[in-house]
Please model this.
Amino acid sequence: YERCGFPKLSVRLSLSDPDHQENYLGTKEQWQMAEQQLRELIQERGAEFVEATGEAAFYGPKVDFMTKDSLGRQWQVATIQADRNMPERFDLFCTNEAGEKERIVMVHAAIMGSIERFVSILIEHHAGRFPFWLAPVQVKILPITDQQLDYAHVVAKQLAEAGIRAEIDERSERLNAKIRDAQLEKVPYMFVVGGKEAEAQTIALRSRDEGDLGVVNTAEVLRRFVAENSR
Model:
């Protein structure tokens, strides 16, 4: 999760609602035992956590890992659940160290959940401003006039060979309009190429987050992007 740009996840112990035991499978004693075991497990790990009454699954308590999106809303991104009910219903045993049959505890774990749900939370978390390595389009090449299109394609080929995802804005629009649209698309970097840049084999670099970064050597910025892509 840290690699995808999420901050440190918070931990929530999701418990049953003792006032509505009819909503859950199993006995009150089974639930108390399972909840205490998860509580002790979190404490042994030295993690800070909050307890949330009524947030358990109907078959068992959970350790939920939570994050916040760009609007401050909380989302569960991973969960580990202790289930004492399904082993009872399916009569599941293991053989312990004494050679005796012993009822197992079933552990449900979803480290990511469905890929669709994970991606939706990822989009909400970043509000579309993905880190460089994750952005669908990492670089937008902005030729000032049609005369720089050939050079723009040369630069695009160099980026592709380096494993960088790039697009060329070939529209007959003013440069300010191209920059504005790239900003709205939240592309991490823009390469502005005019006559001087084409002649000197350089680019004018713009960042989504930092603005104008000046004229740089194309080979130099490629090395930097390759390093950033492989972190």
The first strand starts at residue 10 and ends at 15.
